[in-house]
Amino acid sequence: MKKIGITGGSGFIGHQIITLLLEKKYKVKSCDLAKPKNYLLKNKNFTFRKINLFDEKKLSNFFSDVDCVIHLAAYLGVLNTEKNPLECLNTNILGTKAILNVVSKNRIKKFIFSSSSEVYGDQDKFPIKESYEYKIKSNYALSKITSEFYVKSYAKKYNFNYNTVRFFNVYGSGQKTNFVISKFISQVLNSKNLTVYGEGNQVRAFCNVKDAALGLFLTLIKGKKNTTYNIGNNNQPISMYNLARLIKSLSNSNVKIIKTSFEKSDRLKEREIFRRYPDLKKIKKDTGYIPKISLDEGIIQLLK
Question: From its phi and psi, is residue 188 left (phi > 0), alpha (psi between -120 and 50) or beta?
Answer without folding.
Answer: alpha
